[in-house]
Amino acid sequence: MITLLTLQLTIFLLVAVGFLMKKIHIIGPQGQKNINDLVIYLILPCNILHAFTQSAADGSLMNYLAILFISIGIQVFCVIYGKVMFRREAEGRYKCLQYGTICSNAGFLGNPIAEGIYGAEGLVLASVYLIPQRIMMWSSGLAVFSGTSDKKQTLKKVVTHPCILACVLGIILMVTGLPLPIGIDGAVTAVGNCNTAMSMMVIGMILADINLRDFWDWTVVKYTVHRLVIIPAVVYLVCRMLPLSKTVLGLCVLLAAMPAGATTSILAEKYQVDSPFATKMVIFSTLLSLPTICLWSIFLQ
After folding, report:
1. What mean pLDDT do residues 254-275 have?
2. Mean pLDDT lowest among 29-33, 157-161, 204-208, 230-234
3. Which residues of 252-265 are buried (b: 16+ CB within 10 A; e: fewer)?
4. pLDDT at 157
5. What is the pLDDT of residues 72-107, one digit of tens each?
6. Cα–Cα distance between 208 and 248 in angstroms, integer?
7. Contact 177, 58 (CB under 8 A)
């Protein structure tokens, strides 16, 4: 509970900093665009690469394989689920909702919660769980926003994106156990560690352009219920039928119960796809995740 409260407070303070910087005109529209591009093309790839190099390659092989295959299944389920549940929404909202269903904030929020509840084993298993999500969010997820009618052009955009290249290199390094060269490793880590602060401040800047009287949105409420309650409930019911350890089952459910990832807003802003709506999704689902994650944690004990 203390870990979760601390993380939530950190998130909202960083959002408030970005909001204030935009409101008092320290950062203008062009500066916001430049920071957004910096996050997408440099900070996020470094963060992804660092995360893969920190993933352990030892421990219980059966638990690793189990959580890996379940995570792949969850990602496939979320892709289909988002398409079906939000198919009647306007195109801009549909893209945000679909991406937000595929990509949660399991990396930033999930890792420390996994470690707090399940110890070092939980942290390592969580890092394995996140491998399919990181790949999916920068392949299928990116295609949601950047897609065109030309499938070949869409594929080219996706496979050449810095975040996809970082995923490929990260997997190679994790599997082979090879470290990044000294110096490069430190630089990648230093830049990647800026991810949370910069991403949340970008969300605050987008939030500064939203009329707060329009912040309440029933579609966002519906999305939040799906993201925080229904999806993890489905994961729980399916996992209960499988011969899984209590740790693997609990982690799968908890990590499936995370709010919308910050990249929902960042990519919506980049590709001009209703970023105010995407920001409301991130802020509202993150706020409501405070009680829901606590309830899921109690239920799974």
Report:
1. 87
2. 157-161
3. bbbbbbbbbbbbbb
4. 65
5. 999 999 999 999 999 888 888 999 999 999 888 887
6. 40
7. no
Alpha helices by DSSP H, listed for the chain, are: 2-23, 29-38, 44-53, 61-85, 91-102, 111-137, 140-146, 151-159, 162-176, 184-192, 195-207, 218-225, 231-240, 246-256, 263-270, 275-300
Alpha-carbon torsion (198, 201, 207, 212), positive or negative: positive
Alpha carbons within 13 angstroms on the beta-carbon side of residue 195 total 23
Instruction: Report pTM.
Output: 0.75
- Provide the Cα torsion 199, 202, 208, 214; round to 10°: -60
Q: What is the domain partition of the chain in residue ranges?
A: 2-199+217-300
User: Which has the higher per-residue pLDDT, 277 or 105?
Assistant: 277
Q: What percent of the chain has pLDDT over 90?
A: 22
Separation in Å, CA 85 to CA 78, 82, 177, 301: 10, 5, 41, 30
Q: Which residue has the tokens 């996809």?
A: 164
Q: How far apart are CA 71 and CA 19, in angstroms?
A: 34
For residues 24-51, one letter each, b for 16 or more C-beta atoms within 10 angstroms of the residue's C-beta and e for the rest, the string is: eeebeeeebeebbeebbeebbbbbbbbb
Closest CA to 203 of 51, 35, 47, 89: 35
The CATH T-level fold of domain 2-199+217-300 is: Na+/H+ antiporter like fold (1.20.1530)
pLDDT at 123: 67
pLDDT score recorded for residue 61: 67
